[in-house]
Amino acid sequence: AQKITQTQPGMFVQEKEAVTLDCTYDTSDQSYGLFWYKQPSSGEMIFLIYQGSYDEQNATEGRYSLNFQKARKSANLVISASQLGDSAMYFCAMRGYSSASKIIFGSGTRLSIRP
Amino acid sequence: GAGVSQSPSNKVTEKGKDVELRCDPISGHTALYWYRQSLGQGLEFLIYFQGNSAPDKSGLPSDRFSAERTGGSVSTLTIQRTQQEDSAVYLCASSTRTANSGNTIYFGEGSWLTVV
Question: What is the pLDDT of residues A94-103, one digit of tens each?
Fold first, then answer.
């Protein structure tokens, strides 16, 4: 069975500060991938960053980085120098690479950036 | 088209009516997913198709919900005898089989269903 947990339903952060959004997961698959998506108020799902379970280095994409701690089964998203446009819902997701593994999502964290 | 296409974008239906929601995935994507998102909530997995394999229907909330995928491409999600609690955005997504860093899942814009 697979499970994704996001324990922060909402967060407020001052503009230009860094923010960490928590995500823990559980899976029996040896090989899996972890994703973060952003969903602004418009409703679209925007892919941010991906981390493979066998990747040795933490993934980075611009201001986004993924703090991957495999032994702790955590995949926290770090946003550096937050901007007002970062205000949105953020979802952590996982896919196990067994023969037929669906992608499951966490419950999300609503991030609000204060000017 | 280049992206995942869903129709209708908005649907208002009366309680008890049947509705069909359509998803046209990205060409060449073998995996197709349906999710449901209620207002302000997370994404609830409904069903997953992968190539010619039997679909994973473990997320369908009741037997009023069904989905099919014809010819490995277009998918239709059908909700029979709709209830007010079915009101939500129904999101479709597609990916290549592996959905790794270069081939993540891509979402459509969703079908907003309102049952009155």
Answer: 988 775 567 8
